[in-house]
Amino acid sequence: MSASQKLLRHLTSLTHADPAGELTTIPPTVESETAAKTLRRLVEPSDGSSSGSATATAKREQELDALLEPSSGNASTLCAAITCATSAIDLIERDEAADTAACGLLRWGHLRVNALQILLQLASSEARCVALLEATSDAAAATCVSLLASKASRTDREGVRTAANLLRNLAMPAASRPRLGAELSGLFPALIKHVPHPDPNTEAVVGAALRILVEGCQPNALKAALAASTGVVSGGGDGSLLEEGAGGSSSGSSSSSGTIAIAGSSSNGGGGAFVGFGRLIGVDLSKMHPFCRVELSRFIAICIGSVCASDGDGGSEQQHAAALASPEALGFAAFVLGSRHPGLHAEFCAALKAARKAQADADVADWVEKVAAFKVGVQGREMTIKAVLAELAAAGSVNKEAAALLEAPLAEVS
Questions:
Q1: Is there a single domain that holds both residue 311 and residue 371?
Q2: Residue 67 in contact with residue 39, Cβ under 8 Å?
Q3: Quick check: is 254 in a domain?
Q4: 92, 143, 305, 412 — which has fewest CB within 10 A?
Q5: Would you say residue 28 lies in a domain?
Q6: Do 281 and 412 reside in the same domain of the chain?
Q7: Within this chain, do residues 305 and 365 fall inside the same structural domain, yes or no?
């Protein structure tokens, strides 16, 4: 039996506790806390300064392999411990009369973070990320969503950052993205809940997780776009289009058009105009880290490009693509045009082309003019999107057809 397996025995008892009862009155056992802390040190990489670093690395790899052994249930035990800690923390936070010290609020938080960090070490490569999802039947990702969606998550910065980081890693294998989007209820609302975030590093990781989850995955792009939007789409009936966004979100969201309610909101019965990506384009950008701004800009561009370019079968995603590709959303996504990376320029242009087609189909006459007039910061200069695209086309960073998307008559876009 490996050292990690011996330590995990002390965490197994947590999985049999009653989260609705004893967890609100007692902290985790000292043995379980020590086991989680020791196991984390065992699997985290060393600084490489010692002469025996090669031996330490080999031992670490052996422990990681043992934890991922499919038949052992080791990784599932870690997930169960995290779930147990999250339940305890949420129950303690809800009880206004609870003695947080006696209930072990901080101790539960430390145990949860240590267990999450162990899972993060297990998700150190694409192959291990796939193996971790398989070994835990997706629980490794589900525990992250539960933590991010919990009301107490805002006070646990390290836990939120680690959970978002783990979700980002698990989404790195392209084949895992549809699985995560389909199997994890509330995935996108849970992530979007943490934009903005007081910690810029957490904010950037959340943005990266959102972007990776939708990259090359149209079903995820549609779900994520709706989760990031506010209001009710005109002609959307009972608002079922926004089902993903309605779960785990507050009853209202500040956007550039004012306070817009989510479909099904009790505040106004689900009324309010639809604002594509309203949860993101309405945040205070003055405090947002540039890395996060880039990731969210790419996220919006990928979603617009994917949803608007989809041929589909005439379903809701085609009917409301134009509503998602608003001038405001494209203005937010255009932030990447200030980058020096042609790949990011191409990503925006793909979104613009798809959105242009959707708007032409919807016969929105002034859309082109509004998008063209949005301002973008480029190397200390403020320029309109139209002027930036013309400059990039002249430099060869984008093709002339992309630059012409904001000039051609609507009928000519195909």
A1: yes
A2: no
A3: no
A4: 412
A5: yes
A6: yes
A7: yes
The answer as to whether 43 is a domain residue is yes
pTM of this structure:
0.86
Query: Among 66, 80, 48, which residue's Cα sits nearest to residue 3?
Result: 66
| pLDDT computed for residue 315 by the predictor | 52
Which residues, including other chains, have CB under 8 Å from residue 38's CB and lie 6 or more apart?
7
Give yes or no for a contact between 166 and 144, defined as CB atoms under 8 angstroms apart: yes
Alpha-carbon 36 to chain mean position = 26
Q: Please report the pLDDT score of residue 26 as a whole number.
A: 81
Give yes or no for a cis peptide into 178 (omega within 30° of 0): no
Which pLDDT value is given to residue 402? 87
Q: Residue 145 carries which side chain, given as an amino acid letter?
A: V
Give the per-residue pLDDT at 12. 78
- The tens digit of pLDDT for each residue in 331-363 reads 999 999 999 999 999 999 999 999 988 876 665
Q: What is the pLDDT of residue 319?
A: 59
For the chain of 414 residues, list the mean pLDDT of each consecutive stretch of 10.
72 62 70 93 76 78 90 91 92 88 93 97 96 96 97 90 98 98 96 94 96 96 93 47 39 31 32 83 88 96 91 56 88 94 95 87 74 91 94 92 76 48
Pair (117, 204) in one structural domain = no
Q: Are residues 68 and 208 in the same domain?
A: no
Is 298 contained in some domain?
A: yes
The structural domain count of the chain equals 2
Residue 142 has, within 13 A of its CA and on its CB side, a CA count of 18
**Residue 84 sits in the same domain as residue 203:** no
Query: Token pair 């043992």 is at which residue?
Result: 66
